[in-house]
Amino acid sequence: MRQKKVRKAIIPAAGFGTRMFPASKTFKKEFFPIVDQDGLAKPVILLIVEEALSAGIEEIGIIIQNRDKSLFEDFFKTPPIPQLFKKLSLTNRQYSQYLQEIGMRITLLFQEEQEGYGHAVYCTQDWINNEPFLLLLGDHIYRSNTEFSCAKQLIDVYQKFSQSTIGLTIMPEEIIHKAGIVTGNWQERNSLLKITQLSEKPDLDYARSHLHILGMKDNEFMAIFGMYILEPEIFDYLGQEIRGNLRYKQEFQLTTCLDKLTQDRGMIGYQIQGQYFDIGMPEFYRQTIIDYP
User: Fold this and answer.
1) Nearest 5 degrees, angle CA 69-CA 151-CA 181?
2) Is the pTM of this model over 0.70?
């Protein structure tokens, strides 16, 4: 089977960040600071971009609102003013130059109206241009438990099967109503799953009846890790739902289209050897500050 190279990644960052109000009223959550392993205070969006680059991604599209264009351009494409640059340490000067190099690989893509996660992904169709792509959430950061980054692990699995592949993680039943949950059949226990169904934020009764995976604890389910490798056919399903105005909780979702793609073409799930950190809600952001890296 011929390998398909994954060259592009997209990161949705066009939301209003309502769950992080009032901070998000003046400061986008994608720019909230996190201290990385190298000791640098980095905005969340930079950590996500670096995750993509660690997997060999060549081009990154960040989905934003028009009004945020200058913010992202200033960070990724504009060097510091001379007065600030002079005050930086040698290490930080070198990192500043590295940021400009990263900026050359970033394209800003626009979601004119905030119509949901699925709609944001759909807005990238022309830029993706019929290639498989890596999709990373704009409010998740990642830490691998192996020598390979989480994104690199997922790309390696995709290239083995040449089929849309979703990163997975074990989640306790208490919080599955906040996540996308999958079920399926193990191909390799605690590693590879042939997905048979995806459900967006299911209630517990439904999950217990329809989404539990054989061999897992009764109070645990398999959740989406916030990382995907998707074949371009996903845009066909997204387009159908958008044209038909098929919404879930007033928005166009990705998970419903992933489920349709699974039924028609199949989907692989891979249990990532690592951890994601959610910064999209105050209690999760606070815990991320404590636990990361």
Assistant:
1) 90
2) yes
**CA pair distance 222, 242, nearest whole angstrom:** 28
Helices (H), 15-139: 44-54, 69-77, 82-87, 90-103, 117-122, 125-128
Which CATH fold would you assign to the domain 8-291? Spore Coat Polysaccharide Biosynthesis Protein SpsA; Chain A (3.90.550)
In the 8-state DSSP scheme, what is residue 66? Answer: G
Whether 34 and 74 have beta carbons less than 8 Å apart is answered as no
Ranges assigned E (strand) in the chain: 8-12, 33-35, 41-43, 59-64, 106-110, 133-136, 140-144, 165-172, 180-188, 192-200, 220-230, 268-271, 274-278
Q: Cβ distance 114 to 16 under 8 Å?
A: yes
Question: Which candidate, 74, 133, 121, places its Cα nearest to that of 238?
Answer: 121
Q: What is the pLDDT of residues 103-136, one digit of tens each?
A: 999 999 999 888 999 999 999 999 999 999 999 9
